[in-house]
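Q: Fold this one first, please.
A: Sequence and structure below.
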Amino acid sequence: MTNSEHLASWVDGGAKSRIQAFLADITNKDDDGFIPVDERIAVFDNDGTLWPEQPLLAQIAFTIDRFAELTAERPELAKVQPYKAAAEGDLDWFGNAVTRYYQGDPSDMLVLMKALPPAFYGFTVEQYQQRAVEFFRTAQHPTLGQPYASLGYTPMVELLRYLEAHEFKVFISSGGDRDFMRGVAEQMYGIPPERVIGSSLQLDFQESVDSVTVLYQEQLEVFNDGKEKPMRIWSRIGRRPVIAVGNSNGDIPMMRFANVAGRPNLRILVHHDDADREFAYDAGAEEALARAAERDWLAVSMKSDWQRVFDHHEQPE
């Protein structure tokens, strides 16, 4: 195995040892917990699990750019949310909308979700994805000072490769937009587009002589969060995951979906407790952290379990 497959950026012992022991057991044909290769499915949330979600989700930064375009075309939009916050550069409004949603108050998130589909109405799927790719070429995180495309968590990318080395098929299942993530998932994580499950806008098509153009409509098809995650995972994969990895209250149903009587499972919760190298917060994850402690899920401490968070952090000698 390569160094990345050995989880080089993970601190020895603790979480790293538990992951290694779990995989050793379920891949040992002589072990009672052996899991056949075709059942080895792992699902990962994206925002806050594979890359940062604070203080602003990458997709929201991308959408703010579109809102700014629309406000320039129609100045009256700047009087209403979320266009008002976009026009004023009020990034806190967007970040707080997400946090409050995971704490049980969806009011601002509903406003945001209502505005999002019309913002991209009429785009072809290729146009939308090209805009996402262009965003990742230049956009920088507002506080970490690095390109969004460089901010995949190094230990988590190593974990993806480690699972693949143990013949797992790995999927992303996120509340983020499916096609936005597809534009960068292969580059950042080595996950191909067909293994990305996410929220989506309704689609329609236009016919020409010998081709079809697929277009975004003004309605949200599904918001892939909470209870939607297990349903979308099943509809796409047709199997329950053996390993489920998340970081927030919205991931709880997905984590619970991995629990099958008589079969081993590993449920991993990323805990954001490193204010120096990333962020420290429990908001929006309170219920998940409590459930992790109660049910013996593996709570991974960024501060204690990871030697580094990003590739631009130096590896300790």
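Q: Good. Now the second chain.
A: Here it is, same layout.
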Amino acid sequence: MNFGEWEMTPWNEIPKAAYDAWVADFAHARFGGVESTQCVIARVAEALDDCVATQNEEMIWVTHAGVIRAAHYVASFGHRTIRDVSEWPAHAPMPGHHVLLNL
């Protein structure tokens, strides 16, 4: 996710009001002014669809936690709009670890 003005800023340095506004409209708020959670979900869903359509075997993605969480969301809920922050997967693998998704 492109966090715009908050990119590379530690979470504890982001004003609570900015964080609260994002959580209040988790699907559509553009945290940092650039990309919403739903934009990330749509981008990841499209990439997953493309991979599934062109591959007949397992694939490996090397990525960061945001994409992993979006892929988990798509695997669980499909392409629908995320309702609120409670649907966003809370856990992602630790650095260097992996997760297996069946799509």
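Q: Anything worth noting on the second one?
A: The two ends are 22 Å apart (CA to CA).
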